[in-house]
Design brief:
By secondary structure, the chain is α+β, with helices and mostly antiparallel strands. It folds into four domains: about 140-405, TolB, C-terminal domain (Neuraminidase, 6 Propeller), CATH 2.120.10.30; about 410-510, Immunoglobulin-like (Sandwich), CATH 2.60.40.10; about 525-615, Immunoglobulin-like (Sandwich); about 620-755, 2-Layer Sandwich (60s Ribosomal Protein L30, Chain: A). Helix content is about 20%, strand content about 35%. The protein is built from 13 helices and 48 strands. The strands form twelve sheets. Strands 12, 13, 14, 15 and 16 form a five-stranded antiparallel β-sheet that branches. Strands 24, 25, 28, 30 and 31 form a five-stranded antiparallel β-sheet that branches. Helix 3 (about 30-45) packs antiparallel against helix 4 and helix 6 packs antiparallel against helix 7 (about 100-110). The longest helix is centred in the last third of the chain and has 20 residues, at about 690-710.
Length: about 750
């Protein structure tokens, strides 16, 4: 396949010390090398080096059936060569032997657990199996009267025909025909169309040189072309002729003024240009230093009459493997990649500019295949062309047409469940049809959020909360959210715990204004308690504890552990609390503890079976302050508060959007109350070593302080302290010893303590 040539250039290096086979191999003439390695194997069938080199040569030529055959032999001869598990697996995968490939990848990852490509291959095998059951979004067909026995690729509509790149005349893959004569190898062709495509002709004698030209891109006004060229120049034995980008302008009917792109370089490749419709962006592929590895996609922005410095599109697009053949249309970048989960070889992906080049999508089969698929072009919103060397073609690379056909319209609905203005985590929600039949069931995450995917568009559905608590069902609120998880609509409640909605396109929710809500106070407190019979610790009934209002209605629930301890968090700091036991027992006592487990005081049992606790007594050392919504509240000096939304991703200290909102409230409090300061304490989960977690928590605390100081707060009013994993607020593991992701997420937090300044 000719694509491999476009990635590496042609070397003129000749090492006289090596055998003929090794000479050809070193030059990249793999077909010739195979011929001489096979002669060696005829005399010495068990020569491991020759067998290995043949396997590697077939892999580089993308001859996957032969690569599979020889890697199987190479692995048998040398099972200690770890890379052969990967290469053998890739050959099997390219030959549609997914289960066999997965076995090889698993062995490779076992030997190389940190390998990106190994883990990617394992993931891709699972994805392929999952994708196989999905409805196909494209129909493809080979284009008649264009393809030859050699490589034809990167089609592009031009006036009444199709421009593409072809190696007809000489075959760059079959190196036995590579005679180094001064004839054009890769050239740009044009096939005009009447009822069908006519015989292709050279697009321009000026653009087609004596070596390799194409692929290219033409500006919307059809006056400028940018194209790839590899010059045939002799600069010494070790010189590599790299692909470069050139520009030409149309003068009448002829292309003239061929000039090199200002960012070409003899030390690396610059290729596969594509210009945006508005002419302001030029995308290309390059293996220049500073990238992620292999070929990366870059973009230059037009600055007047010049192009600005190349910008790498980042890790959302680029990987340690090859990304190439960019194509940009209507805000969407299409590109070919070996470094994202796919079917094999190069797959075509799409990524949106509005998403800042993140979350690329595989276009899936049948547009992508187990071989190389690349060079896509849309002629309208539903039809276009692409290139592939898949089985069943005419030559090594062929041009195919595609038609996108709409699937059954589907959408996604996401929401947030709250109770008493707090996230209702771990709550079961049933998705029902209009006849109350349960279609699916989901549990809200630690933030009260849920998502139902693949819903039939414009169909009515019901959401039903699966809970027995009437107070919860009566007072819970279910919000619909946009793609960023922000509230945009209160769901229509039609019965207790049941809501009705119409499945609309996800974009509809993104266009709605965010719901305006009164911000909750930043100051919430956590109350720790314990129930016991005669002495703390002698009760092990794991009873449910209820927080009730003055009317006895249950507003919160918590479960006592095996020692009778329970926790209620996010409580208002300036109130008294009433607790009830789900199984009343007049002999049980209740005490309130501090965060270290020390007894603060007893909760008083009332005649109506409730236990009363008033958090602040009159003689307690209190601080009166103004919170962020101008409420006057009282708190105890040195009392800890949890900033509920300053939570962190695993191993991250980054301040996210939600965390910034909470810290902005803290800034207001510090500015409104001149006589107080804050100690920010950050915490981690139990993953990682003690020393690592201590460093990470300090880094998190420092980041939070850095953010607050950046908002104009006096540095004397705030300090940072990291405690690592030493002060968890939730178990990091479940009782059965398995990981507890929700508990660990709660432990990755920042708290603050109010300090009275002198």
């Amino acid at each position: 396949m000719v694509v491999s040539f476009l990635f590496m250039g042609i070397t003129t290096n000749s090492l006289a010390q090596l055998s003929k086979a090794n000479k050809y191999y070193a030059k990249g003439f793999y077909a010739n090398a195979i011929t001489y390695y096979q002669k060696k194997l005829k005399k010495d069938p068990n020569n491991a080096i020759a067998n290995q080199k043949i396997a590697d040569s077939y892999r580089k030529l993308k001859d996957y059936p032969n690569a599979e055959l020889f890697y199987e032999k190479a692995l048998a001869m040398n099972p200690e060569e770890n890379a052969n598990y990967l290469y053998y697996g890739q050959a099997l995968k390219n030959n549609n032997k997914i289960n066999e490939a997965r076995m090889q990848f698993d062995q490779y990852v076992a030997k190389n657990p940190e390998s990106f490509i190994g883990r990617l291959m394992v993931q891709s095998c699972g994805d392929i199996i999952e994708w196989s059951s999905e409805e196909k979004a494209f129909k493809v067909a080979i284009v008649e009267n264009i393809n030859s026995k050699n490589a034809d690729f990167c089609p592009m509509e031009y006036e009444d025909g199709l421009i593409f790149v072809s190696e007809r005349g000489l075959d760059l893959v079959n190196e036995s025909n590579f005679d180094m004569s001064n004839k054009p190898y890769l050239s740009i062709f044009l096939a005009q169309k009447s009822k069908q495509y006519n015989k292709p002709k050279k697009f321009s004698n000026k653009l087609n040189s004596f070596y390799h030209d194409g692929p290219g891109t033409i500006s919307a006004d059809k006056k400028t072309i940018y194209f790839t060229r590899v010059d045939k120049k002799e600069h010494g034995k070790t010189y590599v002729n790299r692909p470069k980008i050139y520009q030409a302008t149309l003068d009448g009917k002829k292309w003239k003024n061929i000039t090199p792109f200002k960012y070409n370089n003899n030390q690396y490749s610059v290729a596969h240009p594509w210009i945006s419709e508005d002419g302001t962006k030029l995308f290309f592929a390059s293996d220049k230093e500073g990238g992620y590895g292999g070929m990366d996609i870059y973009v230059c922005h037009r600055e007047g009459e010049e192009w600005g410095e190349p910008i790498n599109l980042g890790e959302g697009v680029n990987t340690s493997e090859t990304e190439a053949f960019p194509y940009f249309r209507s805000g969407v970048l299409y590109f070919a990649s070996e470094g994202h989960s796919g079917y094999g070889g190069l797959d075509i992906f799409s990524v949106n500019e509005r998403d800042k080049w993140t979350s690329p999508k595989n276009l899936k089969a049948p547009l992508n295949s187990a071989k190389d698929d690349f060079g896509i072009f849309y002629k309208d919103d539903e039809n276009g062309y692409f290139s592939s060397n898949r089985d069943g073609g005419i030559g090594s690379d062929d041009i195919y047409s595609f038609n996108w056909h709409p699937l059954i319209p589907q959408t996604t609905i996401s929401g947030l469940l709250e109770y008493e203005k707090l996230a209702a985590a771990g709550t079961t929600i049933n998705l029902l049809d209009e006849n109350d039949n349960i279609l699916r069931t989901i549990t809200t995450d630690s933030t009260g959020k849920f998502v139902f995917n693949k819903l039939n568009l414009d169909q009515n559905y019901l959401l039903a909360i699966d809970a027995e608590d009437d107070s919860f069902l009566d007072n819970a609120k279910l919000f619909l959210t946009n793609s960023n998880g922000e509230k945009v609509m209160l769901a229509n409640r039609i019965a207790k715990g049941k809501y009705k909605f119409e499945a609309l396109p996800y974009e509809y929710y993104d266009e709605l204004e965010l719901l305006k809500e009164t911000d909750e106070s930043l100051f919430t407190v956590k109350v720790n308690g314990q129930i016991y019979d005669k002495l703390p610790g002698d009760y092990s009934g794991e009873m449910e504890i209820w927080l009730v209002n003055d009317k006895g209605n249950i507003i919160r629930k918590a479960k006592a552990d095996k020692n009778g301890k329970f926790i209620f968090d996010k409580l208002s700091p300036d109130e008294q609390y009433l607790f009830m036991l789900s199984e009343d027992d007049a002999n049980l006592n209740m005490i309130i503890l501090d965060e270290n487990g020390n007894t603060l005081e007893s909760a008083t049992r009332l005649n109506d079976k409730k236990y009363k606790y008033k958090r602040l007594d009159a003689d307690e050392n209190m601080i009166t302050l103004i919170n962020e919504v101008d409420e006057v509240i009282k708190i105890a000096e040195n009392e800890n508060f949890i900033i509920s939304k300053v939570l962190y991703a695993y191993r991250s200290s980054a301040i996210g959007e939600e965390a910034a909102k909470e810290l902005d409230k803290l800034v207001l409090i510090l500015k409104k109350n001149k006589d107080i300061g804050m100690e920010l304490s950050s915490h981690t989960d139990s993953k990682g070593s003690d020393s690592y977690n201590l460093q990470l928590s300090q880094k998190r605390a420092n980041k939070a302080v850095e953010y607050v100081l950046g908002q104009g707060v006096d540095k004397r009013k705030i300090i940072a302290k990291g405690y690592g994993e030493t002060r968890p607020v939730a178990p990091n593991t479940l009782p059965n010893g398995k990981d507890n992701p929700e508990g660990r997420a709660k432990n990755r937090r920042t708290e603050f303590k109010v300090i009275k300044l002198n």
